[in-house]
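Reviewers asked in the last cycle whether our approach scales beyond single polypeptides. To address this, we selected a multi-component target totalling 699 residues and predicted its structure end to end. The input consisted of the following lines:
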Amino acid sequence: MALEATTVERPLATQPPPAAGTRGAAARWLLGLNALLVYTFLYAPILILVILSFNASRNVSVWRGFTLDWYRSLLAGAGTLGLYGDTGTVAQDTAELARNFQASGIVLALRNSLIVSFSATAISTVFGTMIALALHRYRFRFKGTFQTLLALPVVIPDITMGISLLVFFSLLFRLLENLLGLRMALGFATIIIGHVAFNVSYVAIVVRARLAGMDRTLEEAAQDLGANEWQTFRRVTLPLIMPGVLGGALLAFTLSLDDFVITFFTAGVGSSTLPLFVYGMIRFTVTPAINAVSTLMLLASMVLVLLSLAIQRRG
Amino acid sequence: MAQSVDLSGRELRTSTALPAVEVREVTKVFPGPHGETVVAVEDVTLTIQEGEFFSLLGPSGCGKTTTLRMIAGFELPTRGEIWIHGRPMGSTPPYRRPVNTVFQNYALFPHMTIYENVAFGLEMEGVPKDEIRRRVLEVLELVRLPGMESRRPRQLSGGQQQRVALARALVKQPEVLLLDEPLGALDLKLRKAMQLELKHIQHRVGITFIYVTHDQEEALTMSDRIAVMDRGQVLQVGAPAEIYEAPVNRFVADFIGESNLLEGQIARLEGERALIYVDGVELAAHRHAQEVQLHQAVTFALRPEKISLLATTAEVAPGHVSVTGVVEERVYIGTDTRYMVRIGDQAQLVVRMQNLTHQDADHFQPGDRVQLSWDPAVARVLVE
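The resulting structure, written as structure tokens, was:
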């Protein structure tokens, strides 16, 4: 009772200042509008794309009912891959066959993309993790310089990286031909090397962040209990940094899968990845099959991200 | 049940009369952050006997942990050699040394269950699965943690994690167990209980324990012998009573327990007895066979509980000496009453009187003139 009396008598200190009422409402309204615009421009195009991938009409501006034809054509394309071999990169605007033919080009490009992304991810995850471990564990001369150089590819413009890789490969090929008589050309190998070159940085940075949070004495404890360097790494270090390694790998895979600029400069004949192929195709005609492919890629990357989140939560 | 636990394999080891660990003239120099060198351990020599509970005691940065880490093999000596049961360790990596460590922060593997944590060391040795199972369950019983096998470390309390860390090291049946401030993170009550338990476990398994701590009370309670370290050097090695009663220098006297340390000069020498002139008063102490010169600057050291307060009219006990002083402050602390008594212009002595009867506590009041008496044999002359 006494307590209640004293609290009621005390004036409220948290009264809003007078004129703030209308200003607050205006600010809230503007913030709401801002959020609406941001989310609209972020997600409306994606939503439209997904909807159009089910549109029976070839024309983007007309809705002619729901269909799964475009997805079917992708499947058919996959089926006819063997038939058309590795040449299906030219768009032809004729009949049903041509549509499947074009779709087979998409599937082929998707296959190229997956080859490049998986290879580049695997290589850069191994190397990136090794670099992160070395930087975390050892003290050596010019360590600071190495660290800065490692982070640089993250900020170097893609166009610079692409052109410099192209120049580098041209020089290298000429040198190899003159010295050893080896004739080489741009292709999967050069794309993968280019992708590894920038992916390594991302993986190393993500893994290092994880290592920084790891207790060094855990490794000492393992060695103390009789584990040699390799056993310590396999049984203690790797499981503990695994969320970082997987996170880095996933980041690398995503970056690799949708990279356009660097791939553009390092790709050769027959090694076009999906982004390159879609770009080339769009210059002739837009087929809803592209919408279907994009929707599938969206689905795939969402699954991958959810997977990585689940893994990291468990770690 | 308790008797069935056999973790020591002692028959094999006690037959050799070699010391468990010898640290011979070991120096460790680290590169500092700005290119300079930091001497962490300087010319340390220690001999630790088989089955001993040996403590390395000192303030932080005194080199005790570095010494332990060199025995474990995490650091290599810059100079000198570590011997374990007569074998020079050289640059043997930690995983090939017959020692195991209990870490300060426990260092339990967070991604493994308690069972997997304890089994890890045996798996590395290639022990058969069923034997691993038997030994893991046995050691968890020893540290009183049965039924916790499938838990994860973070599901256990600090005290339980500490026991797992101990079990994980003990299950390997090491020749020497190294403990790096293992009780540092526990609260006072749990720490006291664990001190006794560690001591019992050591008794049961009979393994040599080397225990690093900065807590002098802990070291006194648990150890067979203690090495007091400061600034990379070993100052004194001895049994707890020896370290407490006969500190070799001012640092040891100050670090272990409470001491009255007064600086003065030798005024007179009468055989064993030295009279030290402090602030206008002469205080009697024993040299304990140290060579001292007349007028030499020394420190007079006397434990507060070894001084008796008497009324000025009272008779001093035979063989004791006394000085007069004025009580400045009186603090009642339950078991004892603590008096600050001024004996010179500046010099003060702290006196602890046990409260044996109800009246003891308010025997003397601030402002009272009193006699302070002690046996000169328990007072010491410390030479730096």
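The first strand of chain B starts at residue 21 and ends at 31. We regard this as preliminary and will revisit it once experimental data from Aim 1 are available.
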